[in-house]
Design brief:
Radius of gyration: 29 Å
Shape: elongated
Number of helices: 24
Structural class: alpha+beta
Helix content: 40-55%
Strand order of the largest sheet: 3-4-5-2-1-8-9
Strand content: 5-15%
Number of domains: 3
């Protein structure tokens, strides 16, 4: 992986204070012009400026201005009070995008979780309250001037992450900046400045005071935006951050597996599996991250002197659910991740006949099939395997699915109404009969015709 310097179009010295076109949406220029015509100074700030300097796409262009919220709302007809108390107004532009316009601010009081701010008059005051120098950049959409009072551009060139001002003070203002630092360093392949790192590690014990929602969102940003998520996750472990919100993951750091050609250790293999999955599948990446949680508890010596992890999937499923509930994840994400963790080792044999494959599909359910095979392929790569066996079984599963087999009781050609017509009374027997029929058609889908199934009920099932 390379640092961000390779993306910079010009040497840093040539950019400072000079005109630089960053190609924002036309709406950004229009908003700045409208505010200028009313006498207000407006700058693009934050991640959009940083990413544009690096030639990276960024959809969220945020603006900062000396106009107060009520003044912004008078200038524009279509606005949304996103966070009036914090000075933020959403301006709905002609392109249909809602752009956040925030009054220049400065912090006057912080408690490690929230800041009390006052409105400020200059962009430099606003940049002075930012977390890291690479985020303390401002660009004027009309004059194309770049403002960089804290050396962020040079830090981008040198691939260094550094706080704005005194590191301990910046982290004490909001301890979430600890995790933001780890994420930025991993995402942009930055070396954390030694003083910044020392203050970060010292601030790690304050992480339990943050809300579960903020902790969760940082993790999902790593999994959903950073291709090499392992870089940030390694920093989580190195800084001690895992111990506080991810104790179950801390348990697998350094755990050794049997010698293979792949990186040794459950943690190293976990990180390899996460990186092997696309950022477009953050929930599957989360399942890969948590897949080995049961291994420390299940670990035993095998007859050859290596390690065995029999039954770790069930243990890991329970631990994964506890962790995800602690992070207040959605029920949908909890269900999918824990199901994938539970199923991670369950694949039908390579030479399985169609009835075995159908029964396996009925157990897994098609809804989980693509993600399960993605997870299995990533785990195979983490163990140094080529993954051809997984691909072969994926093709087999898809071929059987194309035949549209009856994988659930609801797929049967008969239902409860048909059973009532035979004289059966509703109750537990309905379920037993339907399950019996489903068992038959999994072996032979050609039986799934109404008359044939009713004949089986009359001649066989009702006699038992």
């Amino acid at each position: 992986m390379e640092g961000p310097a390779k993306y910079l179009a010009q040497p840093c010295a040539a950019l400072l204070g000079s005109p630089m076109h960053l190609n924002p949406p036309q709406a950004v220029i229009d908003i700045a012009r409208r505010l200028r015509d009313r006498g207000y100074d407006t700058w693009a700030v934050g991640g959009a400026v940083r990413d544009a300097l690096l030639g990276l796409p960024h959809a969220d262009w945020d603006l900062a201005t000396n106009a107060r919220p009520e003044e912004v709302r008078r200038v524009f007809k279509r606005t949304v009070p996103i966070g009036i108390e914090h000075g933020t107004v959403g301006v709905l532009a002609r392109d249909g995008v809602l752009y956040e316009v925030t009054t220049f601010r400065r912090d006057v009081e912080t408690d490690g979780r929230h800041a009390v701010v006052q409105f400020a008059d200059t962009v430099d005051e606003d940049l002075g309250r930012r977390d890291f120098t690479i985020n303390a950049l401002a660009w004027h959409p009309l004059t194309e001037e770049l403002r960089d009072p804290h050396g962020g551009l040079v830090d981008l060139r040198d691939a260094v992450l550094r706080t704005v001002g005194e590191p301990a003070d910046r982290f004490a203002e909001d301890y979430l900046r600890v995790l933001r630092a780890l994420r930025f360093a991993g995402h942009f392949v930055l070396t954390i400045d030694p003083r910044t790192w020392a203050a970060l590690v010292a601030a790690v014990p304050q992480l339990p005071g943050l809300s579960a929602e903020r902790i969760r969102e940082e993790l999902f940003k790593i999994l959903g935006k950073t291709r090499h998520a392992s870089a940030a996750l390694k920093l989580y472990a190195a800084s001690g951050a895992l111990r506080y919100w991810y104790a179950e993951l801390q348990e697998i750091v350094g755990r050794e597996t049997a010698p293979t050609a792949a990186p040794s250790g459950v943690w190293a293999q976990t990180l390899t599996a996460v990186d092997a999955l696309p950022v477009t599948r953050p929930v599957v990446r989360l399942a890969a991250l948590l897949h080995g949680l049961g291994m420390p508890t299940a670990r035993t010596r095998d007859l050859r002197g290596g390690w065995s992890y029999a039954g770790h999937e069930a243990i890991g499923t329970r631990k994964a659910e506890a962790l995800l509930r602690r992070l207040k994840c959605s029920n949908a994400d909890i269900d999918r991740v824990t199901r994938l963790v539970a199923l991670q080792s369950e694949l039908f044999p390579p030479d399985a006949p169609p009835p075995v494959v159908r029964r396996w599909l009925a157990h897994v359910t098609p809804a989980y099939l693509p993600d399960l095979f993605r997870l299995r392929a990533a785990l195979a790569r983490a163990h140094g395997e080529l993954g051809g066996d997984v691909a072969q079984r994926w093709r087999t599963a898809r071929r059987v699915l194309r035949e549209r087999p009856p994988l659930t009781v609801q797929d049967l050609a008969v239902d409860g109404g048909d059973l009532k017509a035979l004289g059966l009374s509703p109750g537990p027997v309905f379920g037993a009969v339907l399950r019996g029929l489903h068992d038959r058609v999994l072996d032979d889908p050609s039986l799934n015709e109404k008359e044939r199934l009713l004949r089986i009920v009359r001649e066989e099932l009702l006699r038992t």
